[in-house]
Known about the structure:
Low-confidence stretches: 4-12, 338-363, 403-408
Radius of gyration: 28 Å
Number of helices: 12
Helix content: 25-40%
Amino acid sequence: MAGISKQIIGQKDDEDYISLLPDYLIHHIFSCLHMRDVVKTCVLSKRWQSVWTTVSDLRFSVSSYDDSFVDRVLTLYGLDKVRKFHLEVNLKPLCPSKIDSWAGFAIDHQVEELLLDLNIWWADCPLSPLLYNCSSLTKLCLSGCCFSLSESINWSSLKSLSIHSMDVIDDVLQKILMGSPVLEYLNLKRCWGVQGIRSTSLKELVIEDISVGFPLHILTPRLLSLRVRGYYFDEIIRIVEAPSLLEAELDFDGPITSDFCGLKRMLCQPQNATRVLFGPSCVEVMWTQIEDTQVSLPNCKSLTLHVAISEFGFPPIANMLATTPNLEKLVIIFKPCDLYLNISDVDSFNFDEFYNFDHMSCWHVKKKFKHWAQRLENVEIFGFYGCLGLEYEEVLTLVEERFKSQAIGVVQ
């Protein structure tokens, strides 16, 4: 009996449990693998010979002269519908018509999520004409190709659109927004030609690394979240209409060379937002004293400041607490100051002269500082060690007041 039991146990241990999994679980595993590895599973057993032909996610990366692999996979594909089709091309000599045929396959199979990531060499590669009237699309990511001015757009189901490294002139962008009536998410990264964003459906807008030579107007009555990141704008973003805005992130880089007054007015625009993040360049503008121009965020409850160490001081923090009457959470993240001020110059740098602060009025403000600090429910400070080379009395004052109240976190 003991020998038989051992034999049975040995048989069970050798059993292929993975092959017993249902197809949907195997497809989930496949979604974590490269397509070439997925196809290789056909040699495992009869059970696996055709499983790969019914995956709903197709992901291809073409970086060699042999592009026949994609053709073979698409020829043997066994489903009528594709959920995701991702195509990344890093090969310059590849014929554009080949890319067009692969994208056409996805469109013919009612693709829901389509990603076309073409190398920078493909900046002049036109989109397939079939793509402009693909009603099955819910998510579209395009990089390194170009739109046709003559094509009309009908993306009736599209909810998420990302456009990277492309020329998106104003006429084309408005065609896109008008032809996407349920679009909720728009990401524009390293694009040029953008003048205005006008949409009645957008809820989230991300603008990254865009440099424009004219004001960028935003008219989005349902917009909830706005993120501006990356390169510094040559001109101002003008939020003409965004009454529903709840979250604003303004974190663009570069030296401040434009009109300080205009930039500061831009920082005042998300007045209805309850969560606000300002990057170092914005903080520099925000803390600069400009007559008749004051940043005021009356509805802000959570404020995050990315601060260059050389710029930190009591008057700016006190001023921000005064202009955010409903603030509950303050997050200060100290950044290295070498982009703004050489660290060797810190001891000789005159903060009062730079920010034009009046010491007499500063003492008056300091009396109210404790009251403003006690109003906060949570304070978080990151990179506190960076302040040790400067006068950090202001940080300790803030910490002291919060210890008397509820919560503070100081992260080295």
